[in-house]
Amino acid sequence: MQQVSISQWVSVHEIGHAIGLWHEQSRADRDTYVRIDLTQVAQADQHNFDVHDGSIIKARSTLSAGDIAAVRALYSGLNW
After folding, report:
1. Distances (CA, A) of 74 to 6, 32, 64, 71
2. Handedness of CA 7, 13, 19, 20 (dihedral sign)
3. Is 62 left (phi over 0), alpha (psi -120 to 50) or beta?
4. 51, 61 contact by CB (below 8 A)
5. If you average pLDDT over residues 25-44, what whole number do you get?
6. Which residues have a Cβ under 8 Å from the Cβ of 13 and sit 6 or more positions away?
7. Which of 8, 20, 71, 74 has most Cβ atoms within 10 angstroms of its Cβ?
8. Quick one: three-class SS letters along 43-71?
């Protein structure tokens, strides 16, 4: 369980993280399109570039159709 406090600073983006969505740089197919050079990234921050099997959410004010589909797949037991 994760508690998410709703305030004027909480965005759809952050709520997406709370329910299991990932950033673009963590997409499973990322290495097909870009090469990540971690030489200028602090060791403590390199985990932000780990590849994850999962979905993405971008900074915006609403969920995309892909975001909704990913959440439905992650939480398929819910009555949508």
Report:
1. 22, 24, 15, 5
2. negative
3. beta
4. no
5. 89
6. 57, 58, 59, 60
7. 71
8. HHHHHHHCCCCCCECCCCCCCCHHHHHHH
Identify whether 24 is a catalytic site residue.
no
Q: Mapping DSSP to helix (H, G, I), strand (E, B) and coil, where does residue 22 land?
A: strand
Within 10 angstroms of residue 22's Cβ, the number of other Cβ atoms is 20
* Catalytic hit among 14, 18, 24, 48: 14
Scan for tokens 């990540």, then name that residue: 36
Beta bridge partners of 45: none
Whether pTM > 0.70 for this model: the answer is no
Determine the residue type at 41. Answer: V
Tens-place pLDDT, residues 29-38: 889 988 999 9
What are the structure tokens assigned to 40, written together? 């200028």
